[in-house]
Amino acid sequence: xxxxxxxxxxxxxxxxxxxxxxxxxxxxxxxxxxxxxxxxxxxxxxxxxxxxxxxxxxxxxxxxxxxxxxxxxxxxxxxxxxxxxxxxxxxxxxxxxxxxxxxxxxxxxxxxxxxxxxxxxxxxxxxxxxxxxxxxxxxxxxxxxxxxxxxxxxxxxxxxxxxxxxxxxxxxxxxxxxxxxxxxxxxxxxxxxxxxxxxxxxxxxxxxxxxxxxxxxxxxxxxxxxxxxxxxxxxxxxxxxxxxxxxxxxxxxxxxxxxxxxxxxxxxxxxxxxxxxxxxxxxxxxxxxxxxxxxxxxxxxxxxxxxxxxxxxxxxxxxxxxxxxxxxxxxxx
Length: 333
Hints:
By secondary structure, the chain is of the alpha/beta class.
């Protein structure tokens, strides 16, 4: 069974409510229709009801069962205004500004619904930059207890692949932190291990990737990964983690035997930690496009409640998948 079908089954077992604020994008409306038809999640759409239903009619999709909330008309607006004001008043927020933001910025309104426990999670990013999705989530929901930083990951499902967990991998960070320090890379590895265990269910086996394997190259970029590996071993000793490893050494058992003999990770990795955002973003897109992998994300890890980003190049099928993953995250939050 494809990985995403397993996730959909988990989502159906305890149906959660997910906000989709980007209702002017046709992919959102098509995805919402399929999500409800498959019973994956309850859906809240934010916007003008007449415009949303007109769009659904033009697309010939069924939105019966979706809850549509117009920020200008809902009786919950006053409560959200007060909650946003109280949350952000130390940063200069006023009640007047809070009302303006909530009626004009649907992403902030969606995050506020999650904050107020009127929804379990939010998915956005089909027509917004990652910063636009992340900013209100961090400002309003903040980071989860004990988390040092928020990071982004993709769950990759590679067809006909003998590596990883039956072809399933977690790639991080592919969407958020541009040039993480060694300490930040170690923290990303820890968060990624938790996400992999939560969403895949298997033991995370973590490779700290580099263009070098076990000292085969000398460079400050290699030094950062070596240091990150040492920090991870010290701070997160429970992790099955090794580095620095080239990608082939991390994945291919025959290569691992010659490049990293004795490593408990080499040749077995299912969680790949990239040294910077260039590598991560390029890597996931190569696997997605050339290996025809399903790429779900960028998922966000480290926020107090589930809010997840989408690639602006996503399909409606991608939105369905990320909503299913967000619902499972919400079950375990």
